[in-house]
Amino acid sequence: MKATNACFVMPLELSRNCPLQALDIPARGLQQQVSKLAKWAHVQIDCANPALQKTGEHARLHATRKNGCYIIVLVLSLLSSSICKPIGVHVYDAADYPILQDLQKCGRHWRGSQWGTEHAVHDWFRTQFHVSPMEADFFYVPIYFKCASSTRGRAYVAEKTTKLLEQLKYYQVSGGEDHIFLFASGDGPTRFPGWSRYIPNAIFIMTEGHYNDGLEKRLQAPYHNPFKDLLIPGYTGSARRIFNFIAADMPILSRRYLATYIGNDQGRITRLKVRNLSRLHPDLIFAPTSIHDPEYTQTLGNSKFCLVPRGLSSWSLRLYESFLAGCIPVVLNDYLRFPFTSFISYNTISIKWPENVINEELLKYLQAVDSNSLTSAHDEVRSVKCFFSFHPIHHFGNCTALTAMSTELLRKFKRFKSSPVTFWTLQGGIMDAQLNGFESWHPPFQVLDVFDGKAKEHYGNQS
User: In sequence order, which residues have a C-beta less than 8 Å from that of residue 373 and are 6 or more positions away?
Assistant: First the structure.
């Protein structure tokens, strides 16, 4: 049986159920070790250029240099193409579901804003992985929650989204466990007030994993579940803006500013602490309230440390912009949850400092960081900045926030799907509670929380 194409992580070729081996090999032993691996895997490797990828019948090797070692990622393809195959995502189309048209109406400025993930992720799934419903591993529901709720109100979004769910036949099969919703803003799924009733089991792609209300006093009900949901960066801008960040990345030891904080305080306690500290020590913290590109990107690239206090919610676009500019972030946010922790160790590329110790002690620490530690952290930041861009960066291959997101999505794949309204027999096929075959199911469907009184009435009292 002929093997399928090799499946590997970075650069990315998305496949599921493919075994992965990652080996750290000292540079001096690289050629010998790679030769052994290549011979075993039937791959031709140019050892003089380890970063060069060569494809064989059974495997592919990918090498990158990191801390004096080459990281060799070897992923074997499986013989069964039915097991190791590209991921399939069915993207619901507004042409088939007119309600979606109302939930996607946004001005052009939204696409380039920090909430531009609504467009970027939709375009990514639609152009890269779209398949028919029968072939799908996942279903993407392209509602622009931030845009729609900001322009038309949350009540409008709740009404339209609920009506849309009543039309989704495949949502019934899994109870929504294979359906994906994107929430691009800090208040997450609260942009859809009925989320906890109607889509509690769905996969949420979010920029925020923790939320306080606008007064930073009351913690809202937790809506990020690390076992089913994904965290991604905010949208860091167009390809041109990403290029400007990369170009601004200066050698770390020759940078002008020790620390930088750029932004409005918005009455937030943590930001006010940073502002007050900058007034006491203007020689150590450069803290203008507002500057724009290109001066903004150049300032980040000319700063050793970028202070990242929490804003209206925990996440902040500053974190990801800092990485792109090669500025080491100082996270002043006790509750921030980070994206792509399967790929990135944030304790080597950033500092997380307690919010209640934003004082001279922080500045003393930053001043005391030695040049070796600073250079090492800067090198690490440069090696992972592709994870925070939604556009390819030269020399990083296919590594982007979108490919990393899709790789993490693979771990959510479930071969078997069921819900309280799906039934089956040994002869195969899905039925509803009235023993009607799946092909005869027609909308509207009841989409109810199984813990709700109406749902008990619908499904029957099981006590």
Answer: none
pLDDT, tens only, 113-151? 778 899 999 999 999 899 999 999 999 999 999 988 888
In a domain, 411, yes or no: no
pLDDT higher than threshold 60 for residue 50: no
Same domain, 61 and 132: no
Q: Model-level pTM?
A: 0.79
Partnered with residue 71 across adjacent β-strands are 24, 64
Residues 134, 105, 175, CA angle at the centre, nearest 5°? 35
Please state, rounded to an integer, the average pLDDT across all residues of the chain: 78
Has residue 463 got a pLDDT over 70? no
Judge whether 351 lies within some domain. Answer: yes
Beta bridge partners of 76: 59
What integer pLDDT is reported at residue 437 of this predicted model? 92
Of 54, 86, 118, the last residue of a domain is: 86
User: How many domains would you assign to the chain?
Assistant: 4
